[in-house]
């Protein structure tokens, strides 16, 4: 059901001839991309590294230049608020931490577009009925610390801050120490008070919008995510002298697991995806049958029941492989989030506003995890997607056309304005 938003009565900013500034939007995206630069024009700003700190400092400067109230909470989330109007804020935002081979739009667009919306409204002398906030959430990617969306999960009370501060990174660093080291162990309370509503602008990071020739995604929810780390312990031995029949080879089992994940994803089809993204062998030498192999499994589906079924089959298969090879297996859960449904009223509003902006639009679930899926636990939330060229992301070749960036940000502006003037009876199950 789309929203029946009385646009004419709302006098949306775009209806008063206001558009965001393309030059300012692109200028900030370019400037942020220069922090943690890597070949190919992307960035590497793993959460709470020096590069992440430098990116944070830049965004905080932008927020302060806009006169926003800047709050930093105990897990390093940065919230910039334009404190006008009354009541709880309409919030937008995303993340600026990246994967190791990050593009220039993933997360960054959502933060910079939020600032652009506020700056445009200020310049137009338009004051919303509610405060507007822009969030920069810590460790959305989950590349250095797990789980992903860690900062927004703490922000909504999904994980206690104390337990999170002891999280160990893939490089051995401790999350709380890193927050202190980069100067982002803030004092603002978390969990924080729930916003009135939350809407996130993000690139799709997949091929669907481009393939279907659609300009805007009105996102209906986020698929379920299951991350685990599997450690296989075998017998280290000489590569040249050890007969194949006597081997207990963790690398071989790791490879078998990777092959099985591809097989089961193909067997289930549909939205099922399975990825082995990280394999570490020890001692990782050409002439040594490894002592151990540690690998990560990323398994996702929009349907929780199917996701559980796939997880269970993977667990059984790993046990069979281990027994046959005479290796031992241990595993730990790194992240487990059930599928999330966004508030249909907010998704409907986005759909209507896309039409109002003469942009083709379709409803779709998100394949990637996002901070919005955590905010959806405490307030009506949804997302606006812009197309990704060739569906590429988590890759420096990530690209979205300027026209789509500008249209997405203008729709974000009208959505935030409308949300500031709408009172919601939350529809989705708030946790
Ligand atoms: O893994 C994800 O879906 C997101 O990029 N954190
Ligand atoms: Mn992202
Ligand atoms: Mn990402």
Automatic annotation (TrEMBL):
Presence of keyword Repeat: no
Domain Peptidase M20 dimerisation: 221-321
Keywords from the named record: Hydrolase
InterPro entries registered for this protein in UniProt: Amidase_Cbmase, Bact_exopeptidase_dim_dom, Peptidase_M20, Peptidase_M20_dimer
GO molecular function (one): hydrolase activity, acting on carbon-nitrogen (but not peptide) bonds, in linear amidines
CDD domains, sorted: M20_bAS (cd03884)
Keyword Hydrolase part of the UniProt annotation: yes
Annotated PANTHER family: ALLANTOATE AMIDOHYDROLASE (PTHR32494:SF5), ALLANTOATE DEIMINASE-RELATED (PTHR32494)
Name listed for the protein in its UniProt record: Unannotated protein
